[in-house]
Amino acid sequence: MIVTDGTQRCQVCGKNMSLVLCDGCSIHLCGECRRWDLWGYGCGHVDSKSFCARCYANPTINPYGADHGE
């Protein structure tokens, strides 16, 4: 997850200042538009990920949290 400096507006809603970049497509996201996910690796290691709604739902980009049609 890449944290922004908050000087640019969210590229989804355009209302709020950005907090992070999408881990899929790198657009600026505010706290209301970001989708969180946690990716676990190995024994006890977890990375936090932040996605826009489109990247969050895409199993190619987010294989651990995406909607796989289940």
- Which shape, going by the Cα principal axes? globular
Residue share in helix? under 10%
Largest sheet: 3 strands, antiparallel
Task: State the low-pLDDT regions, or none.
Answer: none
Content-based structural category:
mainly beta
- Give the helix tally: 1
Strand order of the largest sheet: 1-2-3
Round the Cα radius of gyration to an integer and report it: 13 Å
- Summarize model confidence as the mean pLDDT: 90
Succession of helices and strands: EEEEEH
Q: Number of DSSP strands?
A: 5
Straight-line N-to-C gap? 27 Å
What percentage of amino acids are in beta strands? Answer: 25-35%
Q: Mind explaining what this structure looks like?
A:
This protein is mostly beta strands. Helix content is 7%, strand content 29%. It has one helix and five strands, in the order βββββα. The chain has one helix spanning 53-57, and strands at 2-3, 20-21, 28-29, 35-41, 45-51. A three-stranded antiparallel beta sheet has the order 1-2-3, with no helix packed on it. A two-stranded antiparallel sheet has the order 4-5. A hairpin with a 3-residue loop joins strand 4 and strand 5. The longest helix has 5 residues, at 53-57. It is globular, with a radius of gyration of 13 Å. The mean pLDDT is 90.
